[in-house]
């Protein structure tokens, strides 16, 4: 997960399983920022993705372009690896 998403989620009210997954992630430097490698079941990734919805902006909530891009990248990674259940 991109570092901007991880930083946002660290300030969010998370469930214990989500918090554990985030705390056990390994930070990898990437250029100016970092990527957090999180090992968790797909359901946890989908819940984390849902919790970072404010980074997408809209509904009167401002979001920086870098935040929107970070959330979009995380969404793409989660959706590719874990197809949604119908």
List keywords for this structure.
2 strands; 86 residues; single chain; two-stranded antiparallel sheet; mainly alpha
Compact summary:
The chain is mostly helical and 86 residues long.
Beta-strand percentage range: 5-15%
Which consecutive residue ranges, at least 5 long each, have pLDDT under 50?
none
The total of beta strands comes to 2
Spatial order of the strands forming the largest sheet: 1-2
**Range of helix content:** 40-55%
- Topology as H/E string? HHEEHH
Domain count: 1
Overall, the morphology is: globular
Secondary structure category: mainly alpha
Main β sheet profile? 2 strands, antiparallel
Please, what is the average pLDDT?
86
Radius of gyration: 12 Å
The protein's oligomeric status is single chain
Distance between the termini: 24 Å
Enumerate how many helices there are, as a single number: 4
How would you sum up this structure, described in words?
The protein is mostly helical and 86 residues long. It has one domain. Helices cover 50% and strands 12% of the residues. It contains four helices and two strands; from the N terminus they run H-H-E-E-H-H. The protein has helices at residues 3-10, 16-23, 42-51, 65-81; strands at 26-30, 33-37. A two-stranded antiparallel ribbon has the order 1-2. A hairpin with a 2-residue loop joins strand 1 and strand 2. Helix 3 (42-51) runs antiparallel to helix 4 (65-81). The longest helix has 17 residues, at 65-81. The protein is globular, with a radius of gyration of 12 Å. The mean pLDDT is 86.
């Amino acid at each position: 997960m991109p570092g901007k998403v991880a930083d946002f989620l660290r300030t969010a009210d998370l469930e214990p399983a989500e918090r554990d997954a985030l705390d056990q992630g390994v930070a990898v430097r990437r250029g100016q920022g970092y990527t957090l490698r999180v090992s968790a079941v797909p359901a946890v990734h989908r819940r984390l993705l849902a919790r970072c919805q404010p980074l997408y902006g809209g509904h009167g909530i401002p979001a920086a372009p870098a935040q929107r891009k970070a959330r979009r990248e995380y969404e793409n990674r989660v959706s590719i690896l874990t197809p949604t259940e119908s």
